[in-house]
């Protein structure tokens, strides 16, 4: 089948999609967006998290055909058009929250969604929001630091622009 | 229409580290940011599973559902008729050697006549879509004669009754029967009745460690591309490119130079990528079909496709004087190595030589063995033989402290080894060993506040959002531990690393290029190499060349050795480049100063000031030099006595754990896990702390949740739904304090960092749970049923 949708603001068509394919497979292997990662492919690790119509989902659990005429935003869409890093991306680098980095794309999308919803989350809120994203390298401490840093910068940015 | 039209992503694997000329002055001791961080947060870093090639096929393996069976027949005819299938291969299609292995060549690349573990690969398929491959795999017909698996210690040790995992006539191990390897050790008087009689207090215990998985997030994967010269190019996530090639070439029947490996992005490793997984399979399919072949394991296949941490059964007996001085230790450690040897011999060596802990014990007797069984193969995992033992000896220290009525930290400090002391192997500790100080610092750190049951946020208590408790039934405990780990490869292995450093003028600036075959698996070696080059060459711009087999071996990214070994090689090569540049200046300008160095892009004399900008001296000529770094030689352990200068370096970490336990439901919440570690010299403090926190978290997993469940040789939980690794909710704050006591034998005085916390942190958590509950807890991971059905002090 052919699937037509929007990926990171651009119209995309994928042909010959098998009906059992996941959104994750279609993004990675057909559309040239391999940023979303394939760690467990059963919705347990969060590495493949993308926005679907603005809501973070595990793309491995979404059938490719389900995104017909809908909007997908992946980790590749978090930087701006000039490649300038988004606030959450920069915070993850600055805090040392990226080691092997395989979990990072999913964590970035989930953190972006958290801070959209609540710009100043407490530690328990951060842990709750990110509990669906496994990381095997960092011990999560530096991920906590990154989210706090992104939150602080976001609030400072808002204060500056107010 | 696919928007992807080129195969540039294949080559992107080579670009993961290019064009990253960081304009930074950060040398060693600073914390410059990762050179690959920018690509990683943009989703543009090419991991091995991201490799892509026009016209590529997908490879997949048929795996055994039985842990032990004879293969009576394999019929591939129906699988070959599936549209889209290009090849179906069995062991008969292997052109060269049928066996490979890290230390013992006992593992068939594809099963021959029998299978020895659940998940062993029997046949391979290449097809145009992973689903096509999956359907074809299901159409391969295998006729089995299913046999009773040999899985328990009792069964393994009595092969005449229960059978052999490898028949004696095909035997390739170091041992005998179903024993893959064994190592004994005796120091002092050993453990005799006379020695026992000199102890006032004796404690003993049996301890058990479950099978832990590395559970790296990036699945085993790679892309093999057949080459016009009859060879093959493999883009692969691994820990050691050269040892992969060394094992692959004989099976593929190719000279090593025709098997070219380039490191693709690695999504974590932790020892699980030391052995081959899909490397040979992808290359066999690529060479057979003449097309690029990509293999990406699913998560369940990943559980079957790599070796795990050895489960262990241990018996410990310690004797001490009334005032707490250790008199003797008697230890037996039985490791289940599974179907194939992998790294079992070296794991046994570590367990035997480190299995008494960082303590001075006048008399020691140790017997460590690894068994062949029909359980999944076990090999390298972070902590490598030292982890299992640490749970045993640290449990014993707590038991002994209780028997003596002593504070557990004071008992440890009283017996702690320090510089100048001897290991039971007879090796003298010739570098700082601040065991007592590490413990003291862990103890002196402020404790977290008590649980506030008045204003309780249920997310902070055991059970969390499951709302199982609002504070009732929750008790707190505190526990301590310390561990010892070796750095680098031991027992006489000439463990070396190679680095090539090139200095040239690019765009009017002096630029250094560092080329090694080091596998960057996430640990940050690439960052450190750039720091070393900046420090030694006085340049700002450093490019890290992609790791491949075009340069000499870097050895494995394991054993906490890469900063020591490849970092050391980068240092040697950079120093050689520096000397060559200065020599060039002496010849050209006739300098006679003996205090010339390179700083800020200039050749500088400390007495005479700037001599010349480096760009002027270099001109159009590059200086390009390669050096090998060998650590000081070690010796094999004597087989019977375990004596020998076996290890390169030792490293130590101490932990304090604070836990809350819901004693009614058996739920544990680790509240805080403090780590104090001596790192010799922190070349990159941000990365060092990250390694320690990550290592502690894997230890937490082993303490309370992580285990591959096996029944009758069959794996029951090969998924992230059922094999649990700590989430951010399970992981507490991990305060880290680092000491920097330089090791005179190591580059910059550094110590390997990555493993020590994984060795030491598990026992501290179990000690804290014991402190909270009064239970004996002799098996890890500690499960709810242990907490609700065991009797205190049992």
TrEMBL record, chain A:
The keyword Metal-binding applies. Keywords: 2Fe-2S, Iron, Iron-sulfur, Metal-binding, Oxidoreductase. This is (2Fe-2S)-binding protein. GO terms for molecular function: 2 iron, 2 sulfur cluster binding; metal ion binding; oxidoreductase activity. It comes from Streptomyces kaniharaensis. Pfam families: Fer2, Fer2_2. Residues 1-78 form the 2Fe-2S ferredoxin-type domain. CDD domains: fer2. SUPFAM superfamilies: 2Fe-2S ferredoxin-like, CO dehydrogenase ISP C-domain like.
């Amino acid at each position: 089948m052919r699937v037509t949708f929007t990926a990171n603001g651009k119209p995309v068509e994928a042909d010959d999609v098998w009906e059992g394919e996941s959104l994750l497979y279609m993004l990675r292997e057909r559309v040239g967006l391999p940023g979303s990662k394939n760690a467990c492919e059963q919705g347990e690790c969060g590495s493949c998290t993308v926005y679907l119509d603005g809501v973070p989902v595990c793309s491995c659990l979404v059938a490719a055909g389900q995104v017909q005429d809908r909007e997908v935003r992946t980790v590749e869409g978090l930087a701006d058009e000039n490649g300038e890093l988004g606030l959450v991306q920069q915070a993850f680098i600055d805090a040392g929250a990226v080691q092997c980095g395989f979990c990072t794309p999913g964590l970035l999308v989930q953190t972006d969604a958290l801070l959209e919803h609540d710009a100043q989350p407490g530690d328990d809120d951060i842990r709750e929001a990110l509990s669906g994203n496994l990381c095997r390298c960092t011990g999560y401490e530096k991920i906590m630091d990154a989210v706090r840093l992104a939150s602080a910068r976001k609030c400072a940015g808002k204060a500056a622009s107010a | 229409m696919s928007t992807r039209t080129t195969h540039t992503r294949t080559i992107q694997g080579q670009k993961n580290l290019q064009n990253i000329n960081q304009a930074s002055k950060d040398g060693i001791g600073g914390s410059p940011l990762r050179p690959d961080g920018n690509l990683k947060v943009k989703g543009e870093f090419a991991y091995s599973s991201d490799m892509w090639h026009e016209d590529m096929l997908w490879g997949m393996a048929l795996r055994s559902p039985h842990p032990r069976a004879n293969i009576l027949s394999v019929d591939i005819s129906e699988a070959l008729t599936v549209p889209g299938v290009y090849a179906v291969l069995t062991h008969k299609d292997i052109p060269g050697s049928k066996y490979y292995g890290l230390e013992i060549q006992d593992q068939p690349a594809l099963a021959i006549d029998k299978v020895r573990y659940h998940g062993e690969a029997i046949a391979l398929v290449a097809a145009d879509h992973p689903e096509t491959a999956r359907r074809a795999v299901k159409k391969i017909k295998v006729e089995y004669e299913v046999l009773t698996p040999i899985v328990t210690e009792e069964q393994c040790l009595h092969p005449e009754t229960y059978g052999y995992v490898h028949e004696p006539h095909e035997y390739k191990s170091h041992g005998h029967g179903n024993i893959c390897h064994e190592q004994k050790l005796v120091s002092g008087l050993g453990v005799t009745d006379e020695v026992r009689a000199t102890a006032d207090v004796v404690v003993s215990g049996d301890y058990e460690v479950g099978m832990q998985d590395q559970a790296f997030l990036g699945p085993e994967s790679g892309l093999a591309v057949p080459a016009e010269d009859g060879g093959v190019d493999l883009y692969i996530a691994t820990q050691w490119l050269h040892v992969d090639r060394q094992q692959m070439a004989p099976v593929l029947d190719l000279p090593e130079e025709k098997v070219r490996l380039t490191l693709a992005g690695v999504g974590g490793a932790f020892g699980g990528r030391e052995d081959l997984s899909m490397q040979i399979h992808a290359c066999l399919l690529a060479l057979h079909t003449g097309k690029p072949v990509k293999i990406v394991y699913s998560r369940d296949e990943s559980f079957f496709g790599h070796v795990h941490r050895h489960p262990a059964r241990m018996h410990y007996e310690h004797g001490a004087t009334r005032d707490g001085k250790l008199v003797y230790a008697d230890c037996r450690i039985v490791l289940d190595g599974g179907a194939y040897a992998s790294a079992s011999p070296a794991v046994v060596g570590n367990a035997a030589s480190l299995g008494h802990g960082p303590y001075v014990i006048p008399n020691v007797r140790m017997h460590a063995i690894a068994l062949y069984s029909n359980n999944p193969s076990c090999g390298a995992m972070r902590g490598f033989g030292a982890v299992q033992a640490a749970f045993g000896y640290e449990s014993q220290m707590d038991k002994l402290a209780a028997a003596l009525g002593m504070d557990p930290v004071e008992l440890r400090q009283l017996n702690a080894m320090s510089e100048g002391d001897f290991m039971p192997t007879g090796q003298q500790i010739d570098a700082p060993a601040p065991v007592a100080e590490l413990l003291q610092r862990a103890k002196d750190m402020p404790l977290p506040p008590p649980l506030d049951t008045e204003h309780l946020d249920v997310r902070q208590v055991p059970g969390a959002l499951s709302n199982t408790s609002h504070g009732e039934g929750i008790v707190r405990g505190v526990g301590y531990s310390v561990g010892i780990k070796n750095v680098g490869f031991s027992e006489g292995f000439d463990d070396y690393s190679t680095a090539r450093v090139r200095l040239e003028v690019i765009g009017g600036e002096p630029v250094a290029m560092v080329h090694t075959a080091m596998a960057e698996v996430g640990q940050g070696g690439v960052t450190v190499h750039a720091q070393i080059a900046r420090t030694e060459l006085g340049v700002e711009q450093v490019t890290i060349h992609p790791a491949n087999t075009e340069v000499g071996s870097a050895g494995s990214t394991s054993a906490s050795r890469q900063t020591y070994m490849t970092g050391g090689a980068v240092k040697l090569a950079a120093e050689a480049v520096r000397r060559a540049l200065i020599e060039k200046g002496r010849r050209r300008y006739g300098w006679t100063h003996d205090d010339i160095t390179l700083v800020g892009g200039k050749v500088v004399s400390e007495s005479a000031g700037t001599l010349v900008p480096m760009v002027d001296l270099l001109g159009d000529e590059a200086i390009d030099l390669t050096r090998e770094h060998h650590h000081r030689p070690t010796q094999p352990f004597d087989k019977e006595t375990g004596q020998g200068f076996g290890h390169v370096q030792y490293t130590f970490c101490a932990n304090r754990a604070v836990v809350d336990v819901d004693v009614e439901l058996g739920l544990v919440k680790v509240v805080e896990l403090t780590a104090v570690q001596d790192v010799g010299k922190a070349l990159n403090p941000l990365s060092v702390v990250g390694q320690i926190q990550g290592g502690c978290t894997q230890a937490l997993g082993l303490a309370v949740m992580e285990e591959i469940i096996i029944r009758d040789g069959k794996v029951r939980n090969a998924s992230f739904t059922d094999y649990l690794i700590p989430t951010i909710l399970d992981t507490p704050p991990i305060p880290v304090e680092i000491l920097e006591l330089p090791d005179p034998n190591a580059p910059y005085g550094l110590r390997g960092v990555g493993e020590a916390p994984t060795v030491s942190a598990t026992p501290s958590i179990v000690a804290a749970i014991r402190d909270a509950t009064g239970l004996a807890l002799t098996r890890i991971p500690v499960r709810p049923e242990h907490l609700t059905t065991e009797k205190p002090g049992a």
